[in-house]
Write a structure and sequence with these properties.
The protein is α/β, with parallel strands linked by helices. 44% of the residues lie in helices and 20% in strands. It contains nine helices and seven strands, in the order αβαβαββαβαββαααα. α4 runs parallel beside α5 and α8 runs antiparallel to α9. The relative contact order is 0.11.
Length: 238
């Protein structure tokens, strides 16, 4: 097969890989390991998936690419297909919700030694994932937003290193690195978050039996979002 052409989302993930031995969990078609191997960026990869169908497709793709010596395709649930002998330095988990990613990391912690870099790309529940990382002493080392086919996806790089300063609610809600970098896409997404939060507050206020706790939480988050948006007034963004 010719060189794999990655989508913008998958390319953004691949661009953040800095290791030589990766495990791509929920690999689907094994596109990321194949692209990285074709580019000479990695020495070894595990491409694992819980589904027999995706595993069969991944095996065929790896075979066609002539990369069976560098990429091992494994049928496995979560991180169960990884062992210490694999000496994985980078763990990629993409294309699933933040809640599921958190569960896979919890259930698979015995398959990690704590030195791995986590490269996580949730398609929803990013707040829950950041909360999990903070609670389990994973520092968020880098973050990117990528727009692909009309959707915006966060990509998080994390490591088992306790943050020097505990994350604030603003960090968890909007991302510590994203807040610092303040890209145009971040500001656009934060404005959308402001509008959505206002609609949630309106719905809660109009409910027959308002959930006062939830209302207070949403109002507090709205105040944070507004403050972050106001902080950049007059500043140039990239």
């Amino acid at each position: 097969m010719s060189n794999v052409h990655l989508s913008k989302r998958l390319q953004a993930i691949a661009d953040l890989v800095d290791g030589q031995r990766i495990a791509d969990i929920g690999t689907d078609h094994a596109y990321i390991p194949i692209a990285l191997a074709q580019a000479g960026q990695i020495d070894f990869a595990i491409a694992s998936d819980v589904g027999e169908g995706p595993v069969a497709i991944a095996e065929e793709n790896v075979r066609e690419a002539g990369l069976t010596d560098k990429i091992e395709v494994r049928l496995a649930d979560g991180l169960s297909g990884i062992s210490a002998e694999d000496a994985i330095d980078t763990l990629v988990i993409a294309g699933m919700g933040g809640l599921l990613i958190s569960r896979l990391l919890t259930e698979g912690k015995n398959h990690l030694d704590g030195t791995e870099t986590l490269l996580l790309a949730p398609n929803r529940d990013v707040l829950l994932l950041r909360q999990y990382l903070a609670a389990n002493e994973f520092g968020i080392l880098d973050e990117k937003l990528v727009e692909d086919a009309g959707h915006v996806y966060p990509v998080i790089v994390a490591g088992q290193t306790k943050p020097e300063v505990p994350y604030s609610r603003a960090d968890l809600l909007l991302g510590p690195v994203l807040r610092r970098d303040r890209s145009r896409l971040f500001l656009k997404e934060t404005e959308l978050a402001r509008q959505k939060t206002m609609l949630v507050i309106q719905a809660l206020q109009e409910a027959a039996t308002p959930d006062t706790t939830k209302l207070q939480e949403e109002q507090a988050d709205l105040a944070i979002i507004k403050e972050v948006l106001a902080d950049g007034d007059g500043q140039d963004t990239h």
